[in-house]
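Weekly sync notes, structure subgroup
Attendees: PM, AL, DS (notes)

Item 1: joint prediction request from the bench team. They want all four components modeled as one assembly rather than separately. Inputs as received:
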Amino acid sequence: MRPTVHDIAAAAGVSLATVDRVLNQRAGVRTVTREKVEQAIDRIGYVRDVAAANLAKSRVYPLVFILPSGDNSFMRGLEAQVRAAIGRSPVERTDISIVTVPAFNADALVAALDAAREKFPAGVAVVAIDSPDVIAAVDRLRADHIPVLTLVSDLAGSKRDHFAGVDNIAAGRTAASLMGRFLGGRSGPVAVLAGSMLVRDHRERLDGFRAVMTENFPGHVLLPIVEGQDDPALVERLVSQVLAASPEIAGIYSLGAGNRGLIAALKRRKNAAPVCVIAHELTQHTRAALNGGLIDVVLNQDAGHEVRSAIRVLKAKADGVAVLGAQERIRLEIFIKDNLPFEQGSNTEMPFEQGSNQAPEQGRQD
Amino acid sequence: MRPTVHDIAAAAGVSLATVDRVLNQRAGVRTVTREKVEQAIDRIGYVRDVAAANLAKSRVYPLVFILPSGDNSFMRGLEAQVRAAIGRSPVERTDISIVTVPAFNADALVAALDAAREKFPAGVAVVAIDSPDVIAAVDRLRADHIPVLTLVSDLAGSKRDHFAGVDNIAAGRTAASLMGRFLGGRSGPVAVLAGSMLVRDHRERLDGFRAVMTENFPGHVLLPIVEGQDDPALVERLVSQVLAASPEIAGIYSLGAGNRGLIAALKRRKNAAPVCVIAHELTQHTRAALNGGLIDVVLNQDAGHEVRSAIRVLKAKADGVAVLGAQERIRLEIFIKDNLPFEQGSNTEMPFEQGSNQAPEQGRQD
DNA sequence: GAAAATTTGATGTACGTAAATCAGAAAATT
DNA sequence: AATTTTCTGATTTACGTACATCAAATTTTC
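Output from the run, pasted for the record:
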């Protein structure tokens, strides 16, 4: 049997009330007594039963998610995952609010972070823009002991507690490596399409891509970076211009969003030499393009996993408990036509029949 | 506030005791009363507080993991992950026992399954061998209402509740697609190295690989399948023979284990034409070979994720509650030299200081 | 060495559910 | 209508922790 607070009391030779004072750092315990209790705690290997503690506290975790607004399938998918988490709130004891701010606007983000701070939430998750003002705003939250987690794009130099997102340098390197090998002997320049150099994830992807291309595939010239602001309409115009200007183009690496525009531009480009296209984030559009052969590789981060991980980590940070590092690693998923997962509709297995504890007869629908 | 059993009682106009009888399907409730209660339950949207219920029940989940024994890095890694889960037992309320049986031995597996059944565990996870006897043994467990989960290799035709593993047909297809594209213009036959055709995961990988190779890359002849029994020593002998017999070989797909032997054989093969090598499972050996350029791609399934998912699913099945399908999808990870994750040592972030609920000062070591 | 301040103990209630007991009410059977 | 059987209500204890209150013991201060 796992030791309880009573066992601590007995082991330390003190009363339950004193154990409670130590465990929950209440005042009024002499240092000697506190040490006696703490020694007993790790002597008998006590670990607080978080479930029971939360029950007693009627603990809820008010969390704030700050996401960019705008017409961006990936971010809207991310928001949908947060909404799905809101649906699980009663079970997970969370109270999640979503705040959207204009994309690539540091001032708006700072305002949102400061507004969140006023409400003293148990944690804040934010898709960060890399700027000193944003770093300062994040550090203000941390100064108030509010855990902060960066989502998708990190914020180096800040005091944020955790980053839930992929290794974007590795993503860029992977894209370059696959691009180079897929192109094989073919020659021709390669275009890189980004959203904005203001966000760290885009910069890191570019750095990784450029490093591997210049080192391992110097035969392919990199065309000047195109910044499409993650906006499908703008992306389409810009890509069309690039394709017209460089008809001998061999590859395109789209490291940001707005791929709808990229795909539209590619579709209008008939009877020309094949282009190797690598894009980020699996959406209905990139999925269709992958199946249709317009895109060769999609690099993806699972938004659902990111959101669930973010919530787990923020709750753990709020409670001051450790997180399982391996579990919270966000994988860079590589999709080609052949390993596309089925589109998931309703994604629960074996719906729960209220009030039934019976083992189900069967349930095989993976 | 989330509704409780008391709210059900009030809403249905019955007593708490009756609500309890309905919720836990105890005898002695008239059908009309039961229906009245059930209607009240979904009218007010009651969801059982699993944490409180487990607390009241002092519930523990005895689980059995049946794994193949033998000198196989992947399986030993899987076992290590189960042991790690045993370390978390007090927190997760599990009581896990590990049973190892000789690999590719259906009779031994059946015996282990039947032995597990005697102990009436809350769930059984098994790395399945595809055979009618094993299917029958699994179905005997299910007949006793014991949830069964197949791990790594599935068991079609059985009544198993869930499969925790990757889509192996997609894995084979992915390997073929990458192989074909990496080979580019180069010609030459491709060798396939398997463990045994007795396990379904190996067969499915082969099927997927073969399908894409013959359809999209008919220029490459597939050499006869080599079965190395996942045994490094045997694999080394067999691969050396193949390399000697077909010096013009262009690619090798190792879809099973025992890659230590493959790597050793490749190392001994000096100054010959480059071979594109795709292998499964990231171990210290394949990782080193990937970094060293001996292997081009490693397809992987995260053993830690598989084990944690298996435990979550078995607990859910034992309680008859729904599982989050998306969360339990085991990803096929594709590793090339450029996206190898850092080797994880101790994998917890911010060790918990006993008895402290304080927010930590900082913690940035991703 | 007495008063004041601090520390400790004892005890009770609460969180939401499970499980048991026993008395009483309502049905079904004769 | 009386009896048996089945169903329902009321109440209590428990799980492990949090939190509050008040009394008693100990230490500190003057």
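Discussion: Residues 4-6, 17, 20, 23-24, 26, 30, 48-49, 51-58 of chain B lie near DNA strand C (CB under 10 Å from a C1').
Action: AL to compare against the crosslinking data before next sync.
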